[in-house]
Amino acid sequence: MAFWKKQLNKSKKVYYPQAIVKGKPVETEDIAKELARISTVSNSDVQAVLGDIAPVMHNQMKQGKSVHIKGLGYFRYTLNTVGVADLKDFDFQKQVKAVRVEFTPDREKTSSGTYTRALVDSGTLEWIELPSDTVDDGPSGGGDGGIEENPLG
């Protein structure tokens, strides 16, 4: 089950539902154990591969490519930038404020012609409302999962 609570947007003075992340993140070791349990690959082998996936993805994306992991989705670099009114003031280094990784979940066309997204199985995803005064055990959701401004450094 997933969790949400009512969140006030102070500038617009309206309430929105906000997805909430509870507890600490599930770590690589836990994912590896679960993958090992449901496959024929050992826990240590899974951890070794997962441990190497980030630098391999980075190497491909720094060459201008997107990375597709079947059943999961696509990853690519995007830029957080500021614009300039005059082309003579254009300076890439000064205008780039952050490099981000954009993730787009895989999608699959259903027999009815609609699409379903990987990781979002709306048929089995149950949302539970938390009281607005609930203190979270971890970072709240709603976009970045508590990631700092520039996770790439």
Automatic annotation (TrEMBL):
InterPro entries: HU-HIG, HU_DNA-bd_put, IHF-like_DNA-bd_dom_sf. Residues 129-153 are annotated as: Disordered. It comes from the Bacteria. Signal peptide: none annotated. Residues 9-108 form the HU domain. It holds the Pfam family HU-HIG. Transmembrane segments: none annotated. Keywords: DNA-binding. GO terms for molecular function: DNA binding. NCBIfam families: HU_rel. This is DNA-binding protein. It comes from Bacteroides intestinalis. The lineage of its organism: Bacteria, Pseudomonadati, Bacteroidota, Bacteroidia, Bacteroidales.
